[in-house]
Design a protein that fits this description.
Elements (H helix, E strand, L loop, with lengths): L7 H13 L13 H8 L7 H13 L3 H15 L6 E10 L8 E4 L4 E12 L5 E6 L6 H16 L6 E3 L7 H9 L3 E5 L13 E6 L5 E15 L14 E11 L5 E6 L6 H9 L2 H13 L10 E3 L5 E3 L1 H35 L13 H22 L3 E3 H4 L4 E3 L2 H24 L6 H13 L3 E6 L2 E6 L5 H16 L10 E6 L6
Length: about 500
């Protein structure tokens, strides 16, 4: 960074502390006293909004956001190796509500299509974020899976086994083959038509989760063969012949009778464990929900943008209109057939009337209408066939823009670090707080805002917090403080060892 009073450490730690104080955006610095936050940073005062924005822009200009994400992911894998045996991948859509012409995508939680930016997130077994990449517009999760495999392997190391877990958005037998070839295992839902399991194939299985809870699953199991299409040779990849991939199909039946088919190549896992690991995917969705509320996951941290790739192919709106015209022409043909049938019925009734001599003339108008409808249908079909399904973006939306991503990758890294720090504290707090599963994070949010004293005595920096809102909360925080003190952590850039305590709740 350029010479200045605030360096890299102060800038990043300011972002992390603001996030923990639930002011994750740079503008949040206006609501925190600079002198107070500066004391925690070891400075006279913390950077204010303008300075913080300028420093983040300077960092983003280096274009190293992806490298930072990869480094954080590798650090996560080293420090929590037990949590990266299963990696959960999912796409996340950041909704955009401004005036720029951003590409539209499907927003699942809103059940509409709208301007948005797509991201691919990787979380660990506990749902804690590991890394995030910005996906190209309209990229499928299956394509992103194939693109991420080298990054995942670099993150966890060349020999460590790992199971990649994802939902139906990543379903592709061809991608499954690439995952297995790269040395990963897979776990996902089956997508497409399939034969339901017979009722007598299901058995009840009681399973104790790693958290100690007991759950009951109703499961059936068999194998399934998936057809893997051939792949032609490309400059990036060699050709691959068509083949068949055999996987385990574990079907979970709900009390309502719904059957959810789960695919995996893992033969060493029991069926209940497979069902549990697949259901664990919802922890990632819980992270998205929590981070949107508490860490401004979807905030627009930079207003900068740049032109979209005008050469990429996008759906042609005229093709959808042509399909509508064909459907309308089909409807006209069907209606004309109905009119002819009605005319024939009317003539039959007239022929049975007295004095008709058993004869009647069928109205020719419906026949002429049918000929015209068939002509219109043929013309609509010709027009549809002649209309290309995709066109270059320049011919559809020449003004399309894409939001700048580097600053967002940086702010994601800062907020992920804050969330993971909170998760680590929550794990330490769990043995000392009976309601930690329900209230642990709420207690930590209170702890981050508690007043206290900083005092240096000898080579020790004492951090003494005021009591919390309830004695049981203060006791839990005191026990957590004792655990943190036992780590003998040094304050960065000094020789001071940090000692934590809660006033009036000393832990022997």
């Amino acid at each position: 960074m350029s010479n200045g009073f605030y360096g890299l450490r102060a800038t990043l730690m300011t972002g992390v502390f603001l996030a923990l104080l639930r002011e994750p955006r740079a503008e949040g610095a206006t609501r925190i006293a600079p002198a107070d936050l500066g004391r925690v940073l070891g400075l006279d005062r913390a950077p204010e909004v303008k300075t913080l924005r300028r420093k983040l822009s300077e960092l983003a200009a280096h274009g190293a956001g992806a490298q930072l994400q990869a480094a954080l992911a590798a650090h996560h894998a080293r420090t929590r190796p037990d949590a990266v045996g299963f990696l959960y991948l999912d796409g996340h859509v950041r909704v955009y509500t401004g005036a720029r012409q951003l590409p539209k995508t499907h927003i699942a939680r809103m059940r509409i299509a709208g301007p948005a930016t797509e991201e691919t997130w990787v979380t660990d077994t506990d749902g804690d974020p590991v890394m995030v990449i910005t996906a190209p517009p309209s990229a499928s999760l299956a394509a992103e899976l194939a693109r991420l495999l080298p990054d995942l392997r670099a993150m966890i190391g060349p020999d460590r086994p790992c199971t990649v877990v994802f939902d139906r958005g990543g379903y592709s037998p061809a991608v499954f083959t690439e995952i297995l070839t790269a040395g990963f295992d897979l776990l996902t839902y089956y997508k497409g038509t399939w034969t339901r399991s017979e009722p007598d194939a299901f058995t009840f299985c009681d399973f104790t989760t790693p958290d100690g809870a007991t759950v009951r699953y109703e499961l059936a199991e068999r194998t399934i063969d998936l057809a893997v299409p051939a792949r032609p040779v490309t400059p990036a990849q060699p050709a691959r012949p068509a083949s068949t991939l055999t996987l385990r199909l574990i079907v979970r039946r709900s009390p309502s009778g719904h059957q959810a088919p789960i695919l995996t190549n893992r033969t060493d896992l029991s069926a209940p464990l497979v069902a549990y690991r697949m259901a664990n995917r919802w922890r990632q969705e819980n992270y998205f929900k929590y981070a949107r509320e508490h860490f401004a996951l979807d905030a627009l941290d930079s207003y900068a943008d740049h032109p979209d790739d005008l050469d990429r192919l996008v759906p042609n709106p005229a093709k959808a209109h042509a399909h509508d015209q064909v459907a309308a022409a089909h409807a006209q043909v069907s209606a004309a057939h109905g009119d002819i049938a009605a005319a024939i019925d009317d003539a039959s009734i007239a022929a049975r009337q007295p004095g008709s001599g058993g004869r009647a003339t069928v109205d020719p108008a419906p026949g002429r209408a049918l000929i015209a409808a068939n002509t219109d249908l043929a013309a609509a079909q010709d027009t549809s066939r002649a209309t290309p399904s995709h066109l270059p973006l320049s011919a559809v939306r020449p003004g399309s823009r894409i939001l700048e991503t580097e600053r967002k990758l940086l702010t994601h890294a800062i907020r992920m670090s804050a969330y993971n720090a909170e998760s680590a504290l929550a794990r330490l707090l769990r043995p000392h707080y009976p309601r930690s599963e329900d209230e642990g994070r709420a207690l930590l949010r209170e702890a981050f805002t508690l007043p206290g004293n900083l005092q240096i005595i000898g080579a020790t920096l004492h951090v003494r917090l005021d009591p919390a809102s309830a004695p049981r909360r203060s006791r839990a925080l005191a026990a957590l403080a004792a655990e943190l003190t036992a780590t003998a952590t040094r304050y960065p850039g000094t020789d001071l060892t940090i000692a934590y305590s809660v006033k009036g709740h000393d832990v022997a």
